[in-house]
Amino acid sequence: MGLRHSIVSGSGLRVCSQVCLRPHSLICALICALALLSACSNVPPEITPGPAQVPQSALDTRVASSTPRSTPGSTLSLDQWLRSVFATARKLVESHSGTSLDGLSLHVVSDARIDVEVREETRSLALAQFNSPNYANYFVERVMQAQSGTYLALYSARHNAIFTSRRLLERFVAGIDDTTIAHEAVLALLIHEAVHAADDRRHNINAVRTLDFRAAFAQSAVYEGHAQWQTRQLCALAACVEGLQRLDRFMFGDARANQALQPSTAVSRNVIEYAYIEGERFIGSLATRQRGPQLLEQLLGDPPVDPIQILDPDSWPNNARERRNHSLVAALADLQHHWNSTGFRHVQTSPLKGVNLRADPARRAAAVDGFTRLLTAMAAVEIHDTRDKHKPPVEVTLLEGITAETASLFARTLQSNNVSRRAVSAESVDEAGATRLLRTTRTIKRGRAHSRINTLVAFNGRYVLQLVAVDSDSSLLDDYASKALDSLTKPAGSLIKSAASTNLR
User: Is the pTM of this model over 0.70?
Assistant: First the structure.
């Protein structure tokens, strides 16, 4: 995949143990909470292997076993060792995919050098999303504070190169006592990134990828999932499965420990696991269908934009659900409200913040069933006031349940998650008596000052709306919710209702 995809949705292999995410972040790309490494450094000399010798027509499973498994602990330097492993990885991917990777190079660089790539592509994304260059620049700086130092490796289409962090790579290899497994793990890492390069060459992913936060969340799962799935296939042939498992533990830690993490860390892990683990599960399911290889090529060329689609591979392509999602967003855009006036920018985001249930298959199955069957459509929007860069965006989540009873249940569940010992809650109905409003207010400390967080969960018929706003008049939330749900439930919304009852695929 292209680097721009890497930035907005978690491409490249990240070190999950170093990331942190507040609950209301944008998408997978904005998942870390480390300080920005502002210094830049020059790129060390390029590591470029010789031309591939493996025939393009078939995978030679002897390549890995015939390559000396030296490590930095031997007479080879780190760069020399990586040159050998990278040459093997490139040959494997070239021969298996039938795609030439001529010119693809490897750079072992500082975290600051990787930051340069991240910053450049994040700026392109931000400028496409916001109509204010000043606000976009501020947004970039905020993202950089969350991204620096978290990439173990990434593929850059702009440079036709793989960048890997010298610091994190040395730390990774130093944690592996067995030199054979160390070789396997780095081979798996470089195969993963080489698959991204091959996919990009076949589908021009960097050029055609949708510059949209919500779509990027789903597309990250497609591209990361495919790279993980392909790497697993190749490692089974090249004897690096145990190394891939070690790489997985380095990224995610022990799956059994996920449930005990603090909330912010757990959400970070959820978002990354969505891209890699749920994405690979999605790809693997499609691969088993009739004409699986052709379907995967079709998918890579035209990935879905709905994050929920990744959890429901049997329904792909679920165009009917996407039409319902679009109807929800359109209803929000048409409101006569202060937050839709000049200066405000609406940005679609993912209503799904990740799935952290790989250690509990039964709970995962129940969660997926809820997202895909009980909820027939989901949309999320952030409303940014581009005139005030310090004001947090208003968070909007809109759900459509299969029945009014289902919607009520989800609304009550959302509200129960908002209630805490420091929160003040209230319940009422709007002036028309049709929409039920569940309010929660809590105060938090922001620097030397205090801020009030207003959360409103509103439901009417089959629709649920949640709003989260900082230091905003509660009447703005009430008015927004009432107007949005009224537009969805009144007779003019009958088209939306009929679409929800039709399960076209």
Answer: yes
